[in-house]
Structure formats: structure tokens, C-alpha cells
Amino acid sequence: MDSAPIDLNTATAEQLETLPRIGPVLARRILDWLTANGRFAAVTDLMEVTGIGQKVFDGLRDRVRV
Fold first, then answer.
1. Is there a contact between 18 and 56 (Cβ–Cβ < 8 Å)?
2. For the chain, how big is the Rg over CA atoms in Å?
3. Longest Cα separation, the chain
4. Single pTM value for the model
């Protein structure tokens, strides 16, 4: 891994967009989920975001943290 994992609870849209398969739309959905739910308690909560299924999650799991 090239850099430290991104904290899902503090990341900006710009930081999220550096992740594989995360563009502006998914970055906004992640931030919207965070606003609605308060915080990510576990990395697996990311799969509750519309548009993030198992395949996308598998590519992100080692690049994010909570």
C-alpha cells in the first residue's frame, strides 16, 4: 500500500475520490451516509452505501479504516 488508510469518519470528498472506483457520486453518497448515520462503526458499514457492493468493497477494505 502506498499510503496510510483513509479514515472514513473524517475523510473529505477529495480524499475519498483517491480510492479505487470511488468518483464524485460515490464520495457524496459516503458522506451523505455519514451525515445520516453519525459515523462508521466498522469498515464493513461501507457496504450499506448505495453503489458499494462486495466487489467495490473488496478493493477498498485495505485502503480505509474507522
1. no
2. 10
3. 31
4. 0.92
22-54 b/e (C-beta count within 10 Å ≥ 16 → b): beeebbebbbebbeeeeebeebebbeebeebee
Domains and CATH numbers, the chain: 6-65 (1.10.150.320)
Cβ 9 vs Cβ 25: under 8 Å: no
- C-alpha 1, offset from chain centre: 16
Backbone angles phi, psi at 24, to 5 degrees: -60, -35
Q: What is the mean pLDDT of each run of 10 residues along the chain (66 residues)?
A: 87 97 98 97 98 96 97
